[in-house]
Design a protein that fits this description.
Elements lengths: L1 H14 L5 E7 L5 H14 L5 E7 L4 H13 L4 E4 L7 H11 L3 E4 L12 E5 L2 H16 L2 E8 L5 H13 L7 E9 L4 H13 L6 E4 L2 H13 L12 E3 L5 H8 L6 E3 L2 H17 L6 E3 L3 E3 L12
Length: 312
Amino acid sequence: MKKLLLATAMTALMTGGAMAANIGVSMSQFDDNFLTVLRNGMQDYAKTKPGISLQVEDAQNDVGKQLNQIQNFIAEKFDAIIVNPVDTDATPKMTKLAAAAGIPLVYVNRLPADPKLPPKVSFVGSDERLSGTMEAQEACKLLGGKGNIVILMGELSNQAARQRTADVEEVIKTPECSGIKLLEKQTGNWSRTQGTDLVTNWISAGIAPDAIISNNDEMAIGAIQALKAAGKPIGVGPGKTMVAGIDATADGLAAMKAGNLAVTVFQNAAGQGQGAVDTAIKLAKGDSVEQMVWVPFELVTPANMDKFTKKN
């Protein structure tokens, strides 16, 4: 009898490492190429973790809808919540809701605006102080430190858009890039269509930049489409317009391979998704985790693009 009890206890210990957990995920929107890779990364990774279940919801770029989703996750007593915020300025309210319920919360990809994250709340993403800096430094190098540029900005409610734009503006203040002049900056809300419309309007207004610096690849692709429609040469050199982006999405890399996108910055969407799931599981188990889990950015140019073609 003692041997049977001992064997039962050992079996319990050996199988106790796998934890069952229901994790609620609220994505800012499904209709976005980069965020689709991020979402798929989370879901694919969760399938490799026995006992882990994800319920993924689309906030459809609506802050109110996202808050309702978080409240529903709390009401249904999920073990942890992962949020890709619609509006990073709205995160303090989300944090307060989760903290009051004692449910672990992980923000992914978009840095929350909270002055300080409380216990059981973490962020998994990439340091946006580097993304726009890498992009702008390479653009400056390709321009030889002089020329006219415009900036396509993401949604202004998003910390990443504000930071990436500030990065570019800081780079062009440096001595080696001081010959670069910023002509215009407007928001294209991360959208390819809006990127096309903005650049079309600039061309119609007689604005002729030497480079278009975009906060993401989608708007950069929109810019490329507008330039082609207007018969403007694309590339690096006199009489051409250089286009730069961020994210190294599959479409962005295809544009680079075609010679239309001069530079982008790899943001590891799948890596961020995996990191968010891992962090949520650890917090649900009561383990200690870093409050800021950083996934590095990497510069992508035509010379090294092949190593990134299957990553996003």
